[in-house]
Amino acid sequence: MALGPQASDIPLIRRTLAVFKVSSIVTGTFLLGLVVMMVTRYGFGRDIELGGAEGLLALTPRDELVGFNLSIMLLTVHGWLYVVYLACDFVLWRVAYQGAVRNAFLRFLWIAMGGIIPFLSFFFERQVPREVEAIIAPLDQQPTTQEASA
Asked: What pTM was computed for the model?
């Protein structure tokens, strides 16, 4: 069995890249919101309240919340988006990086940091597709089995 991606993996890799790009942007955006929430919660002792007594959007002490707690929503949504981001990272590692790149598992771990370190996911949204396209470019040039037999 050959190491690295196969020509038959290219459609899966490209679909995963498309989902990865979207998930990295969305996860990074919610991570920035999460950073703002953590600064307001732990720095000022206030949560972000939506539709409370002080108007549409307000910073309210946690024990005085009457509206929707936007801080908890940011925590929850970012957590689930990070799971999607990790799943895409794992599939890319499994089908594109593993066997094709030295220290592929470290690469997987490094890309996983994109959902934890602010702004890093935006960097990976640009860098990872370029790397993966470079890995699968030689496979795209090979004739498929149907073309070779014709």
From this structure: 0.81
